[in-house]
């Protein structure tokens, strides 16, 4: 074993991080000792981060917005939004993970290709705003006080007002983008119809759509108050990749690709949720409290094939907050806050996608 020559890797940046795998650890004896590269050093060379879960044998290499998913012993990688790469599998040698040179070269080429794609313009072409409930479905109801001070507000009215304001702001800023809204009046599109509106938008390869659902909260605890932003629960496994989309890949692999692709959406969704939460914090100041960013399996979010969030603007069941939610000035601040968050997200998204990764 010690007499074997050290294999050589073509790429210059790999020169210092060469490693060999004992033939016994390679799993394939026939071809002899193929060159492999220690994975954390390889990721470092790519300026990428490496996560690995030894319990499941799965890992991810994240470089900017580009995600590569792998599973030890599986000769299949997922690149970005569900692109499949057949290449020799990552191996766990006990002392570390090793990636065979052909896989490293193919992934390195893919990263370069992604950089080239970014050099051409990337944009958020459409934003779908979804005010919750409507028509026969009032959503949460808040009833407070008595006599002249009596207040009754319905979630469907609160969220429609905010959504229309948000749509007007976004349309004024970006006349070239499609700013869509699922309802403009007191009607009730089904949940399927709402999601379909987004999925039906025709997008060029370098274009994305984001989905923002707006709701108001209710609680048996009358003291509960504040706003929060939800994104898709990463544990939820949905069918995003269909069989036709990945020719030549057997059905047993599709659930893995689905999980991988979903994670790409989750990354963007968490980012969008955080930007909106910060936008609301700036716009509202101390008027309402932030309850943070949370994962959830909302129907409307999990069936949307796009970065998706759900904003809860406050509790109609809290007397003080209900009075705020009945105040047009407060609703405008909520619209402004969500708007600022979306603008921050889109600016970052388009700038990041337009510039080469660091
Ligand atoms: Zn709701």
Walk me through the structure.
There is one protein chain. The chain has 358 residues and is an alpha+beta fold. It has two domains: 12-119, Copper Amine Oxidase, Chain A, domain 1 (2-Layer Sandwich); 123-354, Aminopeptidase (3-Layer(aba) Sandwich). It is built from eight helices and 17 strands. The protein has a six-stranded mixed beta sheet, sandwiched between helices. The chain has a five-stranded antiparallel beta sheet with strand order 3-4-5-6-7, with helices on both faces. Strands 1-2-9-8 form a four-stranded antiparallel beta sheet. The longest helix has 31 residues, at 254-284. The protein is elongated. Residues 1-33, 234-239 and 354-358 have low confidence and may be disordered. Bound molecules: zinc ion.
